[in-house]
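Quick start: read one record
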Amino acid sequence: MKIVKPSRTLDKYVNAYYINDGSKGASNPRRFFAGSESYLKFTGSKGILSGQTTLPIDLNNPAAGLGVAISLKPGVIFDVFNIPSNHLTNETIDLELISGSSYQNMLEQIFKNFSISNCVQAIESFLTSILDERIEYRRKKTIELEKLLINPAFSVSDIARTVGYSNRNLQRMVNMNFGMNTSTFRRVHRFEGAMQIISNKAGGIPWQDIIFRCHYSDQSHFIRDFKAFTGYTPAEYLAGNPSDSFNQFTGASLYNQNK
């Protein structure tokens, strides 16, 4: 699998493009964890849009084939497609239902003569064609809200005052933008931060450092959230094969293939 970063024009919307070149491999069962990102996935003539996830999912990971997935940043489902993100939490829809046939040219460009460069060029042309000033403005506001949400120094009431909403309207807006309430979004963000630290550590895991850096109140708080989003305790996770579990792109795309 090839991972390609987006152009500067699209880096407010896209985390990365994941491109399978068609190499085959054996299928195997895997567990995929909760995540705040969403995905566009294209295989042949089919395109799907999958939402953020709030629970671990056990799936059979099929052998790879030609395919492309676009990891979208939190809030992009609402900003770009005007679909309330909470309608897609742990769900998927056929992309044709929301974009008509406009993406067919992109699919033809990708799969007629499959290559990394063709994929990236076709994807970026497609995404750029969707954007307009309204979307750009909405995206700017969503990013500002996300920065407030992930700042542990701000309470929900602080954020509501900053953006000029009541607490209730703020909760409604966060659900619509990110597909979760404020508490769950913050928990998932903390968990993702912890998993990045764990994934990047070749030696021993600095648990106390993770608890401090990711703003968990104590060890039991961390273990409780870890269990909720992975289905494992930290010890159980490390006793298995961590590299087989923390793969947000594969988790979201496979979830939708098996619905």
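The mean pLDDT is 85.
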